[in-house]
Amino acid sequence: MKQAVVEVTQRIRERSAATRSRYLARVEAAVNRPRGADRMGCANVAHAFAALPANDKFRIVAERAPNIGVVTAYNDMLSAHQPYEGFPAVIRHEAAKHGATVQVAGGVPAMCDGVTQGLPGMELSLFSRDNIAMGTAIALTHDVFDAALLLGVCDKIVPGLLIGALHFGHLPCVFVPAGPMSTGMSNTAKSRVREQYAQGQVSRDELLKAESAAYHGAGTCTFYGTANSNQMLLEAMGLHVPGAAFVHPHAQLREALTREAVRTVLDIAAGPRLDGRPGGDRFLPIGRLVDERVIVNAMVALLATGGSTNHLIHWVAVARSAGIQIDWTDFSDLSHATPLLARVYPNGVADVNQFQAAGGPGFVIRELIDSGVMHGDVATVAAGGLRAYGAVPEVDGSGSGQAGSMALRWSALPAAPIDDAVVRTAAAPFSEEGGLKLLTGNLGRAVIKVSAVPTDRHIVEAPVILFDTQEQLLAAYKAGELERDFIAVVRFQGPAACGMPELHKLTPPLGVLQGKGFKVALVTDGRMSGASGKVPAAIHVSPEVLHGGPLGKLRHGDVVRLDAVAGTLDALVDADTWARRVCAELPAEQADVNGHGLGRELFAGMRRNVLTAEQGACSWL
Question: Does 478 lie in the same domain as 372?
Answer without folding.
Answer: no
